[in-house]
Structure formats: C-alpha cells, structure tokens
Amino acid sequence: MPSAKRYFVYIVTNRPRSHVLYTGVTGRLSRRVFEHKNKLVPGFTSRYNLTRLVYYECFVYPDAAIAREKEIKGWRRSKKIRLIESMNPHWWDLAESWFDLYKPAANAR
C-alpha cells in the first residue's frame, strides 16, 4: 500500500534573523527547497536569495496545510520568529546536507 501523501508548510530566509522571511506550502519539500537553493523559479525567493530552510511543518491534508500557511502569513514578524526559534533556535539551514547525496565525489573522474 502506498504511503499517504504529505504536505508541508515551510519558511525560508537568506540568513539568521533576516528581515526577509517567506512562508510557502508544497507537497514535495525536498524538491521545493532544491528549487529555492538553485533559484530555479523566478520571483520573490530568488530575487531575495532565500535559500535557507529554517522551519517546516508536515500535514496529511492539503487544506490543513494551506490554512496553516495563511495563518502564519497573517502573523507579525515577531510571532514568526518565535515559531522558528521554537524548532530551530540557531536558525540553522535544516536542508543544508539534504542534497549532498547527489554531489559527485571531489576526486571522482
């Protein structure tokens, strides 16, 4: 039996405690983060170099994920910062090593 689809609400930024935060929703978090990191989709996130995944939540139902995204987008910046720091107090890039599996070895020829 196939696993249930999951939906994610996430926040990306360009550096710790940055003034620029972007909240989004997706059904494929790793693919979407890859797109942000490589600026594959023109727009707000590529223009402001938002490549650091600092927060995410997982949902089973897409309507719940969309509602949560809208809720977070309506918050003041200070509340978004508290949310991020509740999970990631150092603002580390939670996806920093996700794509290392796809990098060729340094000495491979």
**Poorly predicted tracts of residues:** none
Q: Which strand-content bin applies to the residues?
A: 15-25%
Report the total helices.
4
Helix content: 25-40%
Q: What does the model show?
A:
The protein is an alpha+beta fold. It has one domain (7-102): GIY-YIG endonuclease (3-Layer(aba) Sandwich), CATH 3.40.1440.10. Helix content is 33%, strand content 19%. It is built from 4 helices and 3 strands. The chain has helices spanning 29-37, 44-47, 62-73, 77-87; strands at 7-13, 21-26, 52-59. The protein has a 3-stranded antiparallel β-sheet with strand order 2-1-3, sandwiched between helices. A hairpin with a 7-residue loop joins strand 1 and strand 2 (21-26). The radius of gyration is 15 Å and the shape is globular.
In short:
With 109 residues, this protein is an alpha+beta fold. Helix content is 33%, strand content 19%. It has helices at residues 29-37, 44-47, 62-73, 77-87; strands at residues 7-13, 21-26, 52-59.
SSE blueprint:
Blueprint: E1 7-13, E2 21-26, H1 29-37, H2 44-47, E3 52-59, H3 62-73, H4 77-87
Task: List descriptors.
GIY-YIG endonuclease, three-stranded antiparallel β-sheet, 4 helices, 33% helix
